[in-house]
Structures are given as C-alpha cells and as structure tokens.
Amino acid sequence: MKINIHFEGLNHEFTVKDDAAVFDLKVQVQEKLGFLAANQRLFMDGSTMLYDYNKLQSYGIVDDTTLSLRYKILVHGRPNRRGISKVYELFVHEYNTVANLKQMLNFEYGIDIGIIKLKKGNDNLEDSRKIWDCDIRPGCHLRMI
C-alpha cells in the first residue's frame, strides 16, 4: 500500500504492507527523513492522531492516502532557584509560527503567553515568523525568557 506523508511542503511516498501498524510507517519515515520515530506524530485529516500500534487500516487508511507529520521540539522554561528548568514538549508542523508555539504552550501547559519570549540560541524569535524559516527542526531546543 502506498502512503504519502506531507512534510516540508512536499508529499513523501512510502510503501507499507496492507496490515502495517502506524509504527511501521514511522520507522520508514525515520529512515528516509532522518528523525526518530518517537519524535513524530502522524495525523489523518489534520486532526486525528494515529497511535503507534494500531493498524493503518483500522483508521480506514487505504492506498494513496496522505497523512500529515508533526515533529517534537522542546522548550525549556526559566530556571528555578536551584537552576533547574522545566522542559515542555510540543508537536508542531513546519508551517506553524512562533506565535502558534506560544499559543500551544498556553493551551497545553497554561503558560501566560503575554509574558514570554522564545529564543533559539542567542536569537529572539519573532511571533510572525514560521518556525521552519527560523531553522526550528525536529528535536530542536528553544528557551523561554
């Protein structure tokens, strides 16, 4: 069965057995696109997340279906008095903006987005920029200040 994974503005084609599990497809994505299966989330119709050990067919996925890929980035919070910072996981699309990341932090973790800025290395990230344009790739680490 042929499955398309939409990522980086392109459809990447994969061939899996008819009885393949979602994880089997993630392993192929890892081999082709180079990031860990654990750092991937696959979605059908943009909103239905596929769980690793379910069969693709259990979701009604047939030949020539296109799935979307989200990948994990890590955002480090401000250090506490002991110098330890909490780490927040976000699963994002390459077309999300920095403002979208802040909204996700608010929605998923209750962080007040009005008081934070995000940084990658020494660079402040502007809310209007797309994360892919800011070189925020799978496994990337950001900081909140």
TrEMBL record:
<feature type="domain" description="Ubiquitin-like">
    <location>
        <begin position="1"/>
        <end position="69"/>
    </location>
</feature>
<protein>
    <recommendedName>
        <fullName>Ubiquitin-like domain-containing protein</fullName>
    </recommendedName>
</protein>
<dbReference type="InterPro" id="IPR000626">
    <property type="entry name" value="Ubiquitin-like_dom"/>
</dbReference>
<feature type="domain" description="Ubiquitin-like">
    <location>
        <begin position="67"/>
        <end position="145"/>
    </location>
</feature>
<dbReference type="Pfam" id="PF00240">
    <property type="entry name" value="ubiquitin"/>
</dbReference>
<dbReference type="InterPro" id="IPR029071">
    <property type="entry name" value="Ubiquitin-like_domsf"/>
</dbReference>
